[in-house]
């Protein structure tokens, strides 16, 4: 790691990962006007252009209006003071994060200051003590009078908190941002006369792993020394030295312009050197001359361009606003060059999980970036590529030459801190947690990377990341597969995440082996690689033991039924998200339904992501009403007022995965088929999609009105085979944007194979109708309260 005030980041991937360019918008409505022109026939031939030919089919997005409108409806509001992190506003840019709420026991408002790069560097104590994310501290805004009221709004479109604080001495008008690229927290306060003597105070946190509040300390572990606060010219800084060397530094300065007082604060981290001091001071010195009006210009431009990359609207007002808040949240917590999200995101609070967790959390955190067309947030692909040598270093020496395995928890460089031992990837606290053979986490994480490839068709991802890392991840399994008396290949005891017992032939691992071998064979063919291991992968697919099942569906593993409440659905990974066993296989429908119903019926240990998983399973089963019901239960039972989520402490993956569950209801593109509106609830008569990214690198736009799908548009970025399944009533017209007929084949059941080359787009709609070109939110079925703490 270079000492430049932060972690060095190589530009390891290019192309599509930078994010798709913002395309033209597309309408949420449709015109039923008949056209005089002769429609296209089923094979795409026509004697005359279709009804779109006169002016062509293009988009009228009315500038920023549809995004501005839907985001304004989704803004969070506070009309009473938030008391905790799960109630208050939050700001971030993937690195610097701030949560805002009342200072406990004081007449003050807390602005937390946390940073995703700030961690300890003592690997001898493992990832969750010795390499843990470290708390930094917080500012308190201390008014003159007693706070009596607040009126705040988190403006999603501009990524800005604004509003007022009323006190017994007057009022404070607030504006706050975490700047998108400068990574500076800026808070402008304009006080009334009675509040002109307000005070800002910084409170350094104890630089100790947050795990210390939940578990005994490892032998020999102590917290780092206190931070030293002092003046550095016109700035002040809290310098937190670390026992391992290196430091993190918080620098700040308050600037007065007329009545307005603006606090500028920045954080930097360096290891093993001390460059963080100058880096933090430099950030403040370069930013402090800019008033808020100047500082927000490029900040807003980034966020506006971000939101315009896709559009989604459903008539469930509560769920729709929740969805757009998740898009705000994920861009506040993740960036391509930022560390893989910790379980808390960049908003570190007391938690037993001050690291990145790889047995479900990381995977769920990043699923929504694909459909929402936000590959610019894919720090997971970059990190696995950049830090592969650290993953290798945590693989047991006996297997390190040809295999890779990742530990359950890791720091920002994917280091676990301890030698896990053969197959031992859990635990990691000396003298406390014995290692467990949870060996599928890397393979599952690589499924996320493969999804990034499939949604962009960027072969550099496949060639440079997926194929070489998956090859070694599957190699690790191959060391342990042994033939049984039945002639099948079996696994020794491994660990299905969190079920609590080691079991042979776990369904979790068998599913990942099947997916991995299949993907390696397909990848080798795509890349033109004649791999000497290909015969072995084929043998494994032929001889691997079938998934253990009983009368209740998928078991945990051989001899171990699913027999207790369990929040994870890892024993059903073959169904979702891998789709190896799926609803389109009639012979497996009873198995899928029985397994899901049995799993979710044990309610004692279920958590929020159990409900997002159940929603996605239901969406695969084409049951939109059940999927919507599970999401409704999630919002009602688990999601906090600001849409954050907790299990002992903040856990970010569950709300983000709920956004993916909504995606699964509106579009699925696994197995080479784009399924439009597969699981729309019966009460959702209107739905709008725009530039929804699918596998095969297509941007899908579509309109559903009055319970009927009116049209769909697909734009191909890679020229991949295009197969669309839709319920648009036939006979159909398939044409390009200029109204020229496109060749297609009707495969039956609403499925079309469309001949579409790179850069082309196809419009599909009933013959004789013309899609409209206005993009707008669909009407809500009923009003819903805002998120936050409204009156």
The domain tally reads 3
- State the secondary-structure class: alpha+beta
- Quote the CATH topology of the largest domain: Glycosyltransferase
What is the CA-based Rg, rounded? 27 Å
The fraction of residues in strands falls at 15-25%
| CATH architecture label name of the largest domain | Alpha/alpha barrel
The CATH class of the largest domain? Mainly Alpha
Based on CA inertia axes, which overall geometry fits?
globular
pLDDT averaged over residues: 91
Helix residue percentage: 25-40%
Number of strands: 38
Q: Largest sheet, order of strands side by side?
A: 12-13-14-15-10-9-8-7-2-38
Main pleated-sheet profile: 10 strands, mixed
The N- and C-terminal alpha carbons lie at a distance of 49 Å
How many helices? 17
Indicate the low-confidence ranges by residue numbers. 1-55, 419-424, 426-433
Question: What secondary-structure arrangement, pairings included, does this model have?
Answer:
Elements: E1 30-31, H1 65-74, E2 76-78, E3 90-92, E4 96-102, E5 109-115, H2 126-130, E6 137-142, E7 147-155, E8 160-167, E9 170-178, E10 184-191, E11 199-204, E12 228-232, E13 235-241, E14 247-257, E15 260-270, H3 276-287, H4 292-307, E16 311-313, H5 317-333, E17 356-357, H6 361-366, H7 368-371, H8 379-386, H9 388-393, E18 409-410, H10 441-456, H11 459-478, E19 482-483, E20 489-490, E21 493-495, E22 502-504, H12 507-527, H13 534-543, E23 549-550, E24 553-554, H14 589-601, H15 608-620, H16 624-637, E25 646-647, E26 649-650, H17 653-666, E27 667-668, E28 674-676, E29 687-694, E30 698-705, E31 708-716, E32 722-725, E33 732-735, E34 744-748, E35 751-754, E36 761-766, E37 770-771, E38 788-789
Parallel strand pairs: 2-38, 28-32
Antiparallel strand pairs: 1-37, 2-7, 3-4, 4-5, 5-6, 6-11, 7-8, 8-9, 9-10, 10-15, 12-13, 13-14, 14-15, 16-29, 17-18, 19-20, 21-22, 23-24, 25-26, 27-28, 29-30, 30-31, 31-36, 32-35, 33-36, 34-35
């Amino acid at each position: 790691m270079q000492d430049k005030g932060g972690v060095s980041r190589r530009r390891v991937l290019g192309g599509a990962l930078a994010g798709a360019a913002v395309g033209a918008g597309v309408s949420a409505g449709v015109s039923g006007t008949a056209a005089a022109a002769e429609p296209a026939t089923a094979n795409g031939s026509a004697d005359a252009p279709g009804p779109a030919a006169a002016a062509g089919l293009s988009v009228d997005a009315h500038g920023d209006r549809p995004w501005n409108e839907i985001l304004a409806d989704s803004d969070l509001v506070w009309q009473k003071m938030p008391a905790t992190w799960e109630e208050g506003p939050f700001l971030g840019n993937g690195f610097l994060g701030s949560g805002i709420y009342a200072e406990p026991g004081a007449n003050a408002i807390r602005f937390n200051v946390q940073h995703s790069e700030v961690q300890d560097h003592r690997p001898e104590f493992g990832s969750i003590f010795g390499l843990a994310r470290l708390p930094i501290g917080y500012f308190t805004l201390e008014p003159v009078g007693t706070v009596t009221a607040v009126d705040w709004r988190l403006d999603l479109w501009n990524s800005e908190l604004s509003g007022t604080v009323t006190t017994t001495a007057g009022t404070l008008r607030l504006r706050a941002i975490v700047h998108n690229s400068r990574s500076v927290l800026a808070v402008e306060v304009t006080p009334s006369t009675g509040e002109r003597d307000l005070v800002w105070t910084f409170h350094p946190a104890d630089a100790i792993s947050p795990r210390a509040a939940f578990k005994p300390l490892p032998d020999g572990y102590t917290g780092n020394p206190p931070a030293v606060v002092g003046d550095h010219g016109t700035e002040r800084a809290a310098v937190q030295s670390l026992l391992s060397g290196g430091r993190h530094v918080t620098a700040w300065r308050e600037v007065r312009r007329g009545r307005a007082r603006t606090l500028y604060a920045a954080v930097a981290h360096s290891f093993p050197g001390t460059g963080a001091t100058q880096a933090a001071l430099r950030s403040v010195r370069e930013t402090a001359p800019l008033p808020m009006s100047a500082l927000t210009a490029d900040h807003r431009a980034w966020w506006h361009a971000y939101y315009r990359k896709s559009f989604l609207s459903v008539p469930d007002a509560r769920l729709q606003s929740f969805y757009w808040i998740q898009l705000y949240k994920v861009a506040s917590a993740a960036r391509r060059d930022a560390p893989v999200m910790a379980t808390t995101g960049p908003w570190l609070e007391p938690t037993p999980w001050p690291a990145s967790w790889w047995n479900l959390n990381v995977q769920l955190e990043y699923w929504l970036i694909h459909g929402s067309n936000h590959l610019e947030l894919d720090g997971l692909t970059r990190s696995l590529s950049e830090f592969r040598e650290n993953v290798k270093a945590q693989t047991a020496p006996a297997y390190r030459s040809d295999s890779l395995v990742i530990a359950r928890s890791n720091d920002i460089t994917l280091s676990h801190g301890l030698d896990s031992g053969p197959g031992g990837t859990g635990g990691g606290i000396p003298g406390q947690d014995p290692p467990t053979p949870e060996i599928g986490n890397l393979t599952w994480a690589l499924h996320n990377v493969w999804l990034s490839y499939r949604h962009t068709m960027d072969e550099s991802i496949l060639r440079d990341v997926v194929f070489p890392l998956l090859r070694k991840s599957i190699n690790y399994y191959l060391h342990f597969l042994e033939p049984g008396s039945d002639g099948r290949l079996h696994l020794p005891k491994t660990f299905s995440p969190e079920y609590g017992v080691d079991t042979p032939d776990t369904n979790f691992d068998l599913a990942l082996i099947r997916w991995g071998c299949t993907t390696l064979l397909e990848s080798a063919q795509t890349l033109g690689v004649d791999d000497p291991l290909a015969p072995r992968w084929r043998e494994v697919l032929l001889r691997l033991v079938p998934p253990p099942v009983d009368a209740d569906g998928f078991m945990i593993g051989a001899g171990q039924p699913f027999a207790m409440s369990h929040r994870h659905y890892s024993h059903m990974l073959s169904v979702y998200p891998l789709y190896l066993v799926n609803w389109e296989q009639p012979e497996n429908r009873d198995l899928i339904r029985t397994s899901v119903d049995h799993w979710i019926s044990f309610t004692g240990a279920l958590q929020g992501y159990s409900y997002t998983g159940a929603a996605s399973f239901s969406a695969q089963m084409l049951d939109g009403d059940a999927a919507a019901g599970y999401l409704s239960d999630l919002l009602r039972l688990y999601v906090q007022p600001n849409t954050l989520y907790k299990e002992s402490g903040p856990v970010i993956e569950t709300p983000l995965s709920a956004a993916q569950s909504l995606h699964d209801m509106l579009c699925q593109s696994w197995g080479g088929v784009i399924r439009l509106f597969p699981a729309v609830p019966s009460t959702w008569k209107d739905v709008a999609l725009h530039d929804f990214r699918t596998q095969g690198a297509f941007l899908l736009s579509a309109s559903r009105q009055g319970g009927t799908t009116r049209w769909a548009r697909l734009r191909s970025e890679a020229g991949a085979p295009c197969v669309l399944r839709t319920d648009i009533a036939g006979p159909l017209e398939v044409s390009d944007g200029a109204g020229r007929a496109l060749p297609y084949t009707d495969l039956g059941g609403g499925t079309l194979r469309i001949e579409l080359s790179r850069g082309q787009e196809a419009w599909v709609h009933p013959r004789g109708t013309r899609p409209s070109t206005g993009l707008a939110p669909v009407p809500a079925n009923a009003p819903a309260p805002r998120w936050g703490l409204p009156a």
